[in-house]
Amino acid sequence: MKDDIQTFDVVVIGAGPGGYVSAIRAAQLGLTVCCIDDWVTDGKPAPGGTCTNVGCIPSKALLASSCLFEEIRDKASEHGIHVEEPTIDVPTMIARKAKIVRQTNDGILYLFRKNKITFLNGRGFFVTSDEDGYLIGVEGRDETRVFAKNVVLATGSKPRQFPGVPFDEERILSNEGALKLKSVPSTLGIIGAGVIGLELGSVWKRLGADVRILEAMPSLLPFADSAISREALKAFKQQGIDMEFGVHIDSIQNDGDRVIVQYKDKDGKNSEMWVDRLIISIGRVPFIAALDAPVVGLKLDERGFVEVDAENRTNLPRVWAIGDLVKGPMLAHKAEEEGVAVAERIAGRKAVTHIERVPSVVYTEPEIAWVGKTEDELKNAGKPYKVGVFPFMANGRARAVGETQGFVKMLADAETDLVLGLHIIGPQAGELIAQGCDALSFGATAEDLALICDPHPTFSEAIKEAALAVNKEGINF
Predict the structure, then answer these.
(1) Could you give the CA distance from residue 123 to residue 120 in angstroms, rounded to a whole number?
(2) Starting at the edge strand that comes first in sequence, how are the strands of the sheet with 172-173 ordered?
(3) Are 348 and 374 found together in one domain?
(4) Domain coverage including residue 350
(5) In a domain, 378, yes or no
(6) Which residue stretches of the chain have pLDDT < 70?
(7) Is 337 annotated as a binding residue?
(8) What is the pLDDT of residues 168-182, one digit of tens each?
(9) Coil vs helix vs strand at 296
(10) For residue 1, is it within any domain?
(11) Annotated catalytic residue 82
């Protein structure tokens, strides 16, 4: 206790995937913990951050609803199931999404109580510091001050705005507005063909919107393996999603009825796009302003990220930063890994994070997932490698359920046979990629994976077959 202000071993500012997990692990290690977060939904505290409230969880809920609608409309008859033309009740779909989000919020609050973590609902910010720690203010529902011996910054990120074009969340939408549409737009424009743009575009395309995507990069998903990117582009074109690459956006105007985007195409020709709604998905930026970080001299880099060392220490003693606040992929599971590792370090334990083993998943149809090195990366590094590819068309389970598009691609060291990367486009890719994560973590070879007895018939057999193909021993293809 310091001047009647409650003192904690650890104060975590932000209750997103990185923050709440870090708080729980610190509490498990015997530390006194306070977690501060200002998110409120319908007048109630809503811990979980962007991921739970306007990101991972709600987008997957809408993806599930739109996939079910599409299957009933387009695929049921293939199974001998005949129904009348289905209709979509968007408010009911959105209400289901909101219910799932609230269940997740309440689940985190339960975990805080279970682990005896003090949760404060409000904006956490630095007030002052001394040799013992940091005075943290809380502004909001639980207005107070607490003293922290250690601080974990986990305030996440926010959508990047197009210069001079604020989100009104009615016609010009961030990911948050795109998850709350009250009806299916006739035409939907998307600026940015990244993960968020592709997933949200997929939702509303399945429900009947005419979707058009403009992307500044010259190709789709440039960080994925090029073979995966080409297959994904082919799949999206088959679904009727119009994509244009290499564009430069000149202006965005909302005339009240439509949104008008003026841009130059890849050849420099002036073009226009007129749409009912526009999602701007051009990346995210660290959400740092609310912390009042200059008060204590927290150092940021030129892009606004918190500067940290290899163990997530900032320039301030006993202040750590994780997740979207620091460099690296802006992914919930990356933040979780860093949050756990920081809690371990505060408690005096050794901890290691392997950013190079963090998987990426795009929850479109088909799903896309990868972990480890791409073929282009290995080529550019001059690393000798072997490739094994197995198409889902040759997988019995995929044929049985009618999801045969895509393939598994495995990359292995030419000399040691160690798995270097796994790349998947096809059914359940987001689940199957875990085998690649395991392989990289345990130093498995392609032969190790080829010798595993997978159940039949399953999608997972495609991993085994790709491993066999690495050494030209494929059985079913």
Answers:
(1) 9
(2) 172-173, 277-280, 187-191, 210-215, 242-245
(3) no
(4) 7-159+285-355
(5) yes
(6) 1-3
(7) no
(8) 999 999 999 999 999
(9) coil
(10) no
(11) no
